[in-house]
């Protein structure tokens, strides 16, 4: 969808002020695994894309590691037992080169106007990755835009030598080739180059097959899917149809999603906090990818479709939108809704504003407003952890160490006729209340083991300061409570007790990670600070305030 068409579509949606805020919402069963449930969730569902030029900024190096970054990654690893994956890439991957004699891990050439032109990496670049949690899987994005095969091969060889088969999960050729200026962006021309390079690099380095991730495209799918030109748009499906995987080198397919943008003035106008923190808009946006997800999974396997780079607002986010607790709620809902569509992993992007991304972009210099934390002081702020990071704590704790967990969107649910590719715009809810269930198929328990309940109605700290009472909704989850074996015995049995952890802040507009808590703890310094807080409820009625989310353990 073009920026203008998407702008018009969003403006036609009901205003947020009209969203329903029910005093009580009764979730309806049955409690068994729904037919619409996802595939088994990948433990690294919540992963990261880090701009190549900024990787060392995030990690530090062996002699001076960035302890904040490493602690934050360790927190996630502890909860799932599997590290978040790292995709090293983005727009700077297409201007990254190898120098085997360079002592610096990475050298960024920046001119006197502050414009970053290219990045040169050396052996210390890969040594720095030893700082990551053990067994962290890496996707390496290679330079395609220069059409310099030997240069891409050099970086691939250095990656394979420096990391090896236990760490490299995929290579990616180019970043967002549908935005290239030269004629690479047609499905046929892209497929011809991609299949040749992926085969030749595989043979030259004796790589196992398949080990390449295809597409990495940026544009939203044209809609409807059967509209003229829609299936000729460069993306996963059109590249595969054009023969990109002729030599069997593709193991994954990746496409990027940025729901809003500040790359140009028309899109800047709608990149607002109320538009971002809106489940209906979010679901409409992600539903555009449903036909592609199904097609790729049918061709490459059930876990083959990835969101290889995403965030709330492209061109590095928007101050007072992307760095707020509102983005934390958006990130939580986006990840869970995407997983319900069978997107296997999502890589939230970390980086900084870059020259020539857009001549009219809002941001210049520093680190991006959508980053989950700032590992160093920069033009946009000091070292800090933003509220969005705590959403990843919620998500990793929801998955836990299970390898057999499935997810379903149980409220409002997708209303789409999933057998039809022409009626995919599924979630028609005008409300801001969302519920997801997690079923562990390895257990005998019929019902879900956890529920995620999200109240996305916006409540800002400015409202609290003005004396406006914070609304709340009670979620009645009694239909999903575990069945008590003693029912029918003639004895009065008390309702089961459930445990709850909360993701909360004083309001959606909060930017201070120190005021954002997950289960009572803040993570402003990397490790949890404060007493761990859990609540218990009997009878299945769970209160959730506006701009708050809870994880229920059943």
TrEMBL record:
UniProt keyword Hydrolase present: yes
Beta-glucuronidase C-terminal domain location: 435-551
Domain of life: Eukaryota
Single GO term (MF): hydrolase activity, hydrolyzing O-glycosyl compounds
Entries under Pfam families matching the protein: Glyco_hydro_79C
Claim: Secreted is one of the keywords in the record: no
InterPro entries: GH, GH79_Enzymes, GlcAase_C, Glyco_hydro_5_CS
Residues making up the signal peptide according to the UniProt record: 1-19
Keywords linked to the UniProt accession: Glycosidase, Hydrolase, Signal
Biological processes, Gene Ontology terms: carbohydrate metabolic process
Name of the protein this chain belongs to: Glycoside hydrolase family 79 protein
Organism: Pterulicium gracile
